[in-house]
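Handout, section 4.2: multi-component inputs.
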Amino acid sequence: MTDGWKRQASADRKRIDQALRTELRGCKGVPRRLRQAMAHSLFGGGKRLRPLLVLGVHDALAAGEADAGGSRDVALRAGAAVEMIHTYSLIHDDLPAMDDDVLRRGRPTCHVAYDEGTAVLAGDGLQALAFGVLADLGPRASEMVAHAARAAGPAGMVGGQQRDLEAEGQEVTARMVERIHRDKTAAMLALSLALGALVRDASPATIDGLLGAGHWLGLAFQGADDVLDVTATSEALGKTAGKDDACGKATWVRVEGLERARARARRYGERGLARLEQILPENEATRRLHDLCGYMWRREH
Amino acid sequence: MTDGWKRQASADRKRIDQALRTELRGCKGVPRRLRQAMAHSLFGGGKRLRPLLVLGVHDALAAGEADAGGSRDVALRAGAAVEMIHTYSLIHDDLPAMDDDVLRRGRPTCHVAYDEGTAVLAGDGLQALAFGVLADLGPRASEMVAHAARAAGPAGMVGGQQRDLEAEGQEVTARMVERIHRDKTAAMLALSLALGALVRDASPATIDGLLGAGHWLGLAFQGADDVLDVTATSEALGKTAGKDDACGKATWVRVEGLERARARARRYGERGLARLEQILPENEATRRLHDLCGYMWRREH
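Output:
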């Protein structure tokens, strides 16, 4: 693995921030405090993994095409939309009625920095804004909205959070953990890959294949999260370490121990990577995406 | 005014309930408790005003056309989507961190019947589901999503709720009340009219005109709400009467007294009706929509 993907990711993170700023600024008439609360969480030092996946698939499919520059701007906007949905979910997950977290990425969570009512509304507003952005992304916009609604909705991310809350302190099996991680985390990562392909007007087969790859990569990512909660410091994580265990969260580490959970994340990640390679053309952009995805479960924070 | 619109509305309410049930059932893999919480609020005895407006405009524009039956099913789905957004906003508005209401339409609010975490997620899930439904509504689906995202988002409904919360107990002017009512209420009623027209593939001029009519009708509707909070009983309202005053809410009644507020609602309502008549063809469906809209500020609950 070379470090080429890191340089690219670092440059792209700046572009993603810029795209997010442009969308937020373009939304006129937002009450000041609400806008500040949205910005607080949106520009809170996230890894921007989901937009990077959108861009990665886009670049892999656009390599050598004449219109790659124009569609990259569309991919950036799609990535901004996914990041808005992700951010809204973090704001709501952190609420006292849910995970009750005061720290996120090393900064006060939205309801701590503002207040609970504003935090609920900032999340609600970001979700609406995200769909508004996707609706503006050209001939396949309504497919993008449909995929995003499924991934983020009650049978996806929102349902996963519900299952996660209900599983707290309960006896769980590896299968139940997998269901939670699939709905809560993997669905949105799979969506990110699919959006990159939709921007490039890819075939249904390519989109389905990417959703499948994203499923395994997403499980690997969340598996790594479970491991890091036990092995990393709060400082490295930017959030309270050891919290999963303290809250009795459903994690693979709790079900089968640290070493087996680590092996599972690696196994799933490799499966996802293999699928990705079957679908995407061989080129420099695909190699960078491959390395970015590998980092998803090899990361240290 | 005849009562023809009431019979039509009553029959349509059943169709709207059916459309909502179909959408909810079509969403597979939703955790049981989350689905129940969504259904609790979705089938809580609402007036279904917003879907009725979608259907009303649809019928006015479809009268005599051969494809009116097929497009009416699309209008029903669009109406279901608007009702989902409206319902999610009520669930979140009722939360302890916002209006802290325990009663809605004579039944316990979602967070009382379930719990706060589930209520937040039920609202989040309904919003996502609504956009998923709109994305599936044919050639102008992405326009529908864009309009809905604007009306429901941080510069619309969500922003209006933020302004409403911030204005509690503050000195307000009639102009500030108008801004709150416009964003919080009128935007979604205007959206409903516009969706009915989008289903019928209407021109941008028609859609703009309907958004304008909806603006005034929506202000009239909310103005009537302000009046009813003071004049009606909790039993008639199905929610706690007198609560606006007790909480120091920004209402026209508070700013200018009952009689002037009542006159204002009527004035705005008549302005909205006049616009509606300029835009829609003269037919039986338009007359029914006219009567339904008149009810919006003449109602007693």
